[in-house]
Amino acid sequence: MSKRIKSKLIRKKLIFISLIISLSIMGIGYAAWNDGTKINVSMKTGFIKSVFLLDNTKDKFKDGELFYSLSQGGRVLDITGEVYPSFNKDITIKIIDEGTIPSGYSGLEEDAENEISELNEYSGKQRKNLNIHENYIEHFELKINPDSNYEEARQFNEAFSNISGEISNLEQAINELEAKIRLYDNKRNYRFEYVLNFEQEL
């Protein structure tokens, strides 16, 4: 084989080798340009769920009886019952957090028709003395007292206080006793409503 033919074959081989090397370099460069990092995101939003905690469903007192029930997943506490006008009791209201976001008490809305009750928040010192569990959001005290706005009872009490210790008229004393008895015979319906607001708390 002549030197001329050998020289052509060598050049062809060099061209093929060069071409293969060039294509390989291009492939590496392409891969490099398309290499990157990924961020996979998966999340859920949390929720606030403050609910009432009931220790019992009924309280029986000397001058009345109250029944407790929960509705709307524990977010509404219904209190029903019958009591005498002299009823004056404090009912403990407990609220716990079953949500995934820490929440705290933010305020109270009171029904304008409320005549016989008052809702008070326990102070920090009171909560500590009661050994309140850590998942309790708040503790409240609901004071129910129909006599506080019972017009007839108030009139009777005023009349009775004006009587001196020297009552000589037995008929007047009997009339006053009958008036007091009528207070217990007179049935009145009361309603009251409180809305307790809670919000996210960090």
- Silhouette: rod-shaped
Helix/strand/pairing class, anyone?
A: alpha+beta
Radius of gyration, whole Å: 41 Å
Helices and strands, in N-to-C order? HEEEEEEEHEHHE
Uncertain parts: none
Strand content: 25-35%
The termini sit apart by: 90 Å
Helix proportion range: 25-40%
**Count of DSSP-assigned helices:** 4
Strand order of the largest sheet: 1-5-8-7
Largest sheet: 4 strands, antiparallel
Number of strands: 9
Mean pLDDT over the full residue set: 76
Summarize the structure.
This protein is an alpha+beta fold and about 200 residues long.
How would you describe this structure in keywords?
three-stranded antiparallel β-sheet, rod-shaped, four-stranded antiparallel β-sheet, alpha+beta, about 200 residues, 4 helices
What report would you give on this structure?
The protein has a four-stranded antiparallel β-sheet with strand order 1-5-8-7, with no helix packed on it. It has a domain at 50-150 and 193-200. It contains four helices and nine strands. By secondary structure, the chain is an alpha+beta fold. α3 packs antiparallel against α4 (170-185). It is rod-shaped and about 160 Å long. β2 and β3 form a beta hairpin.
Give a topology summary.
Elements: H1 3-33, E1 50-53, E2 58-61, E3 64-71, E4 76-83, E5 89-97, E6 103-110, E7 117-121, H2 124-129, E8 136-144, H3 151-161, H4 170-185, E9 194-200
Antiparallel strand pairs: 1-5, 2-3, 3-4, 5-8, 6-9, 7-8
Helix pairs in contact: 3-4
